[in-house]
Write a structure and sequence with these properties.
The chain is α+β, with helices and mostly antiparallel strands. It is built from 14 helices and 15 strands. Strands 1-2-5-4-6-7-11-12-3-13 form a 10-stranded mixed beta sheet, with helices on both faces. Strands 8-9-10 form a 3-stranded antiparallel beta sheet, with no helix packed on it. α10 (316-330) packs parallel to α12 (358-379) and α12 (358-379) packs across α14.
């Protein structure tokens, strides 16, 4: 059922089965043997975020409380980094260190995460990690689909009842819907925000558009200063590319799957703790959502270095521009391109006067909500009523997007 990778503390489980047809991110539920599980667990059918939040966090998000209308239930929100930073980490290694510390302290006996496929450093490979030192193999970003939740079965077969899962929102939502059925003694969920995924093959095509020697790229990060950072393993210096100079227009229309274009949870609302970059303004952005999340943060002690959260600029112009472009894209019309002469000017201004910190995070949440509604209306109009939760409608109201007569709101 599982094979060793050559080290005793990290195992690659055998995962059979297939993803389900239609809107599916292959979280792993469909591969676990219960043919009806997807109907209960999938966020792309009829998600219930308020009910899930009450069950997991003790209460639902309160849109009148702090930033919860945008980011979900929040016990504490930090701008933070790990010190010293972990070598080879995407940022400072905070996500991996949270899981590592759970193993060190015996709070869990196994962590379900992804490591790089031995044949492709960008392809995610679900693994079961039992040795804290081996969590280092899971550092960094992967692009592609990883049926991580299917590793639950072999992990439990091997006697693990105290488990941590590191996952993206669609995986975490599904996990939370089957959590009670698993019979685990303890479950910790470390979430990362997710905007858009694509297949590993598509991602390689994108890398080839960025650099003539794409095989040497060993690091790519979309930063909060409107730039993409590339690092190389052939000795070349790091390279930074402004967002506006990315070759987005050269990507095929289906580069991003419809699942990502219609995702209703950007900030991983059902994780115990969310670790990302959007609100970090150059550091990491951390949301502890409940007591388990706070417990994990406390384990890091003085290795967690914090700074005040920032909140700069205005997002409305950028979001309205995104709305207009997405309306054109969802209607099959070509996107308006910016004149080449203007790109350097806007690239210079964006990190200086554009939204930063929490305002940047709010903008990204609003953009994802807009994208979800417009693309669902075009491709799966009958699903809008059941699939778009109230928190998504709430953040787009200011831009004139409200439910149509046949769309309603959940429960109406």
């Amino acid at each position: 059922m599982a094979k060793d990778t050559g080290r005793s503390g990290i195992v690659v489980p055998h995962i059979g089965g297939e993803p389900r047809p239609g809107l599916c991110t292959d979280c792993g539920i469909s591969r676990m043997g219960d043919g009806k599980a997807c109907g209960r667990a999938c966020q792309f059918i009829q998600p219930d975020y308020p009910g899930s939040e009450r069950r997991i966090h003790g209460r639902a998000a309160d849109p009148d409380l702090g930033e919860e209308a945008f980011f979900g239930v929040t016990q504490s929100m930090l701008r933070a980094r790990l010190s010293p930073a972990a070598p080879g980490a995407q940022w400072t290694g905070l996500t991996t260190e949270l899981a590592t510390e759970l193993l060190r302290r015996g709070a869990v006996t196994a962590v379900l995460a992804v490591a790089p496929d031995p044949n492709d450093r960008w392809k995610p490979m679900p693994v079961i990690v039992t040795d804290p030192e081996d969590m280092a193999q899971c550092r960094g970003m992967r692009m592609g689909y990883a049926p991580t939740l299917a590793a639950l079965t072999p992990a439990m077969v091997h006697g693990h009842t105290r488990i941590a899962v590191v996952g993206i929102p669609c995986q975490v939502y599904a996990l939370r819907q089957i959590e009670a059925e698993l019979g685990l003694e303890r479950l910790y969920v470390i979430g990362t925000p997710c905007s858009d995924n694509t297949s590993t093959e598509n991602f390689h095509s994108f890398l080839r558009l960025l650099d003539d020697r794409a095989d040497a790229i060993n690091y790519l990060e979309f930063r909060a200063d409107y730039r993409v950072e590339l690092r190389f393993d052939d000795g070349r210096p790091d390279r930074v590319i402004p967002f506006l100079k990315l070759p987005i227009s050269k990507l095929p229309p289906d580069f991003f799957p419809m699942t990502c274009k219609t995702c209703v949870d950007y900030t991983n609302r059902l994780a115990d703790i969310t670790v990302g970059y959007m609100g970090g303004d150059g550091d990491q952005w951390v949301i502890a959502r409940n007591d388990r999340g706070a417990e994990m943060l406390d384990m890091l002690g003085d290795r967690l270095v914090t700074k005040p959260l920032t909140d700069k600029g205005k997002r409305e112009g950028a979001v309205k521009g995104f709305l207009a472009n997405t309306e054109r894209a969802a209607g099959g019309l070509p996107l308006r391109s910016m004149p080449d002469w203007l790109r350097p000017v806007v690239s210079f201004l964006q990190p200086r006067i554009g939204p930063r910190g929490l305002e940047f995070a709010r903008a990204r949440v609003e953009m994802k909500a807009i994208e979800t509604i417009l693309h669902l209306r075009r491709t799966y109009p009958a699903r809008v009523k059941n699939m778009v939760p109230d928190h998504v409608w709430r953040v787009v109201e200011r831009y004139g997007l409200t439910p149509r007569k046949d769309e309603g709101r959940p429960g109406e």
